[in-house]
């Protein structure tokens, strides 16, 4: 691992020389290498962030380096940022989060193959203002190939269909294929969003009659409970973050994510840093739903470029039968209307759920991808992984033909029930 980091540091130095050369006035074309940014100094991070805001159409906070630096322990080790420039002007930006990860192919309790990799996760499609967008994106990814460690793997989540990035990834004739094995990861799915014009009634009319009923009914039913008093509180200013954390953590500690996975809201973590940083910029928005004056559900979001990005939501499982997560969301929409917030899109992020399907009125088809370098280490991961995926597909087809899937699920449920009874 130390050798891999040393190798990367040498490449960092080379890329910084290229960046300084381009700043003197030479023109960097879209087919040339993108530079690696030095993230060891907070002032440099702030300078690149300011340049990006001035010259690039930032879609959301995940492309703002100052925000990203708050989400990791060490920006120099945990982030990779590639930049493109034309003379002294920034023309491209591509941030990646670096982490250790396991790539595996499983079906229920059976794991066909797994491997540990150094994962470079694309947070959003690389930004470029070059007229030759596809050439610029291909050059960016080829620069990534030069930078990655020997057991690296690039992960692209929720690439929208029909975009230039998807075209580059799917184009077998593109020069990118000489540097990477490109593997679509899993089936395509949908990224759920809400087109929001500031009015709850208009939003409800954009849904089907069934989904409209499902969105409104839980809040109405809970409000009709005579012994239950509900209220909603908004948290937005820097001085309100502590109060939000106090009540949000009370709920978060009761959730499955906190008890079983060790995640959720906490003091001193990256989430708190992001909240405070966003609040100083006027971009934090939190809500807590109270029942009988006790917190029952929470949510917080970042608001950037008129888009509401829902980051986290949780609820007390004791109130699950009242669908308090749904109630909180609906009451939050009412609050957005009342406050007149300058928001025209609510992004529900990428993981799937029945609730998101019901609540959304915009659905964007997307696909995940893994890219493995064409090296001996890359081949040693890619080909076994590809074989395991083929084996899994064959097994699923055979299972469907023999109607084994339902039997296996029933058997696993019975085993879980027996284990619970013994405990």
Structure description:
The chain contains 15 helices and 13 strands. It has 423 residues and is of the alpha+beta class. The protein starts with a helix and ends with a helix.
Uncertain segments are 1-31, 419-423
Bin the strand percentage. Answer: 25-35%
Indicate how many domains the architecture comprises: 2
User: How many strands appear in the DSSP assignment?
Assistant: 13
Q: What's the CATH class label of the largest domain?
A: Alpha Beta
Mean of pLDDT? 85
Backbone structural class: alpha+beta
Helix content: 40-55%
Q: Main β-sheet: number of strands, strand sense, barrel status?
A: 13 strands, mixed
**Assigned CATH superfamily of the largest domain:** Gcn5-related N-acetyltransferase (GNAT)
Distance between the termini: 43 Å
Overall CATH architecture of the largest domain: 3-Layer(aba) Sandwich
Number of helices: 15
What tags apply to this protein structure?
single chain, 423 residues, alpha+beta, Aminopeptidase, 13-stranded mixed sheet, 15 helices, 28% strand, disordered C terminus
In short:
The protein has 423 residues and is an alpha+beta fold.
SSE arrangement:
Elements: H1 2-23, E1 35-36, H2 42-55, H3 65-70, H4 75-78, E2 79-86, E3 89-107, E4 110-122, E5 127-128, H5 133-147, E6 152-160, H6 164-170, E7 180-195, H7 200-205, H8 209-223, E8 230-235, H9 241-252, H10 256-261, H11 270-280, E9 284-291, E10 294-304, E11 307-315, H12 324-339, E12 345-347, H13 354-359, E13 362-373, H14 376-402, H15 404-422
Parallel strand pairs: 4-6, 11-12
Antiparallel strand pairs: 1-2, 2-3, 3-4, 3-5, 6-13, 7-12, 7-13, 8-9, 9-10, 10-11
């Amino acid at each position: 691992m130390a050798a891999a980091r040393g190798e990367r540091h040498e490449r960092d130095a080379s890329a910084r020389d290229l960046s300084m050369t381009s700043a003197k006035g030479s023109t960097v074309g879209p087919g040339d290498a993108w530079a690696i940014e030095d993230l060891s100094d907070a002032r440099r991070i702030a300078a690149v962030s300011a340049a990006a805001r001035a010259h690039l159409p930032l879609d959301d906070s995940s492309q703002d380096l100052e925000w990203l630096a708050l989400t990791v322990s060490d920006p120099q080790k945990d982030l990779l940022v590639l930049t493109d420039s034309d003379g002294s002007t920034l023309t491209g930006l591509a941030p990646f989060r670096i982490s250790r990860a396991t790539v595996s192919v499983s079906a229920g309790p059976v794991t066909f193959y797994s491997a540990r990799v150094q994962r470079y996760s694309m947070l959003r499609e690389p930004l470029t203002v070059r007229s030759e967008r596809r050439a610029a994106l291909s050059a960016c990814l080829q620069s990534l190939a030069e930078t990655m460690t020997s057991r690296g793997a690039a992960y692209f989540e929720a690439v929208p269909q029909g975009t230039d990035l998807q075209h580059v990834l799917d184009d077998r004739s593109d020069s990118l294929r000489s540097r990477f094995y490109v593997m679509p990861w899993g089936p395509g799915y949908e990224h759920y969003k809400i087109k929001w014009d500031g009015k709850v009634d208009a939003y409800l009319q954009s849904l089907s009659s069934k989904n409209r009923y499902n969105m409104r009914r839980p809040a109405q039913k809970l409000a009709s409970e005579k012994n239950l008093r509900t209220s909603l509180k908004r948290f937005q200013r820097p001085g309100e973050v502590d109060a939000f954390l106090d009540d949000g953590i009370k709920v978060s500690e009761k959730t499955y994510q906190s008890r079983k996975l060790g995640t959720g809201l906490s003091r001193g973590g990256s989430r708190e840093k992001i909240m405070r940083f966003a609040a100083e910029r006027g971009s934090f928005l939190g809500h807590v739903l109270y029942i009988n004056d006790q917190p029952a559900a929470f949510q917080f979001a970042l608001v950037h470029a008129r888009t509401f990005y829902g980051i986290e939501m949780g609820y007390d499982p004791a109130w699950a039968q009242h669908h308090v997560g749904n109630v909180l969301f609906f009451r939050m929409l009412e609050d957005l209307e009342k406050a007149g917030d300058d928001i025209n899109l609510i992004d529900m992020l990428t993981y799937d759920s029945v609730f998101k399907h019901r609540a959304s009125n915009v659905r964007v088809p997307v696909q995940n991808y893994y890219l493995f370098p064409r090296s001996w280490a890359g081949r040693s991961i890619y080909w076994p992984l590809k074989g395991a995926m083929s084996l899994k597909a064959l097994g699923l087809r055979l299972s469907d033909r023999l109607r084994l899937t339902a039997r296996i699920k029933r058997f696993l449920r019975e085993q879980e029930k027996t284990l619970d009874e013994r405990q």
